[in-house]
Amino acid sequence: MNGIGYEYRVEVLNKVVKFFVWLIYGFCDVGDLIEASKVWNLMVDEGFEPGINAFNAMLEGLFKNNRFDEGLKLFQSMRVKRTEDLWLSTYQVVINWLCKKGKIGEAHKVFDEMQMRGIKADNETLGSLIFGLVSKGRVREAYNIVERIEKPDMNVYHGMIKGLLRLKRPSEATQLFREMIKRGCEPTMHTYIMLLQGHLGRRGRKGEDPLVNFDTIFVGGSVKAGKSLEAKKYVEKMMNRGLEVPRFDYNRFLHYFSNEEGGIMFEVMAEKLREVGLFDLADIFSRYGEKMATREPRRNRTLEPQE
């Protein structure tokens, strides 16, 4: 009960706070930071202190919409006024965006502060730091961090692979891809797309040899998958050399052949790529083919009746 006799119910107040937080999150997500700020101010005016979830949403929104300085000011205000509320989730947001912006020195300072406060970094935070180091050419430092991680996961490997591809070192990235599989970390669709873009470029490799020309693979594969109209449109664009070749949709290409038949096709493709010395590409396609060949039977398998 407050000073003038009104009684508050905790569960109702909690719902109000959650409502404010979801509004802030929603407005930040669509880039409407003006409305998000209005809700934030309204929340404060109503006597509610924005919790860490609201704070993180606002912070992410500012960074995401290129209002970096404002985001850092908000983070600094939290450091000064509510240090005890700062935990891994907030440090994670700040370190991730500092690394994305190439501010690796500042990211390291925030990381060190986090560790001094006894907060243990998770693999997602370490993955961001690894990407930041590699993209700045500090590859040895990044490998040192990876070697000290007891159980590296997708966040760690993706940070390393993405950084190596940015340095235009696709062969080294593919070797890490092989190591990742050996250690039981299964690649995702994003892993394959990153590696293909690293080897072939975002628009697909162009060459006189059909074995190396990715257009040939795409068009032939699309026709085989019953997507002849799409293949026809793509060929028409290729024939008009006065136009810039559109960005190749690796995601769609892999999706078309996410089945047992695709698995066979990718294995044949891998053999042909090995014939012309493209072993890295061959291993990428071969692994994807294996994944597709073993996944389909599991989908169609019916449950055995239990006695």
TrEMBL record:
<dbReference type="InterPro" id="IPR011990">
    <property type="entry name" value="TPR-like_helical_dom_sf"/>
</dbReference>
<feature type="repeat" description="PPR">
    <location>
        <begin position="153"/>
        <end position="187"/>
    </location>
</feature>
<comment type="similarity">
    <text>Belongs to the PPR family. P subfamily.</text>
</comment>
<dbReference type="InterPro" id="IPR002885">
    <property type="entry name" value="PPR_rpt"/>
</dbReference>
<feature type="repeat" description="PPR">
    <location>
        <begin position="87"/>
        <end position="121"/>
    </location>
</feature>
<feature type="repeat" description="PPR">
    <location>
        <begin position="16"/>
        <end position="50"/>
    </location>
</feature>
<dbReference type="Pfam" id="PF13041">
    <property type="entry name" value="PPR_2"/>
</dbReference>
<feature type="repeat" description="PPR">
    <location>
        <begin position="51"/>
        <end position="85"/>
    </location>
</feature>
<dbReference type="Pfam" id="PF01535">
    <property type="entry name" value="PPR"/>
</dbReference>
<protein>
    <recommendedName>
        <fullName>Pentatricopeptide repeat-containing protein</fullName>
    </recommendedName>
</protein>
<keyword id="KW-0677">Repeat</keyword>
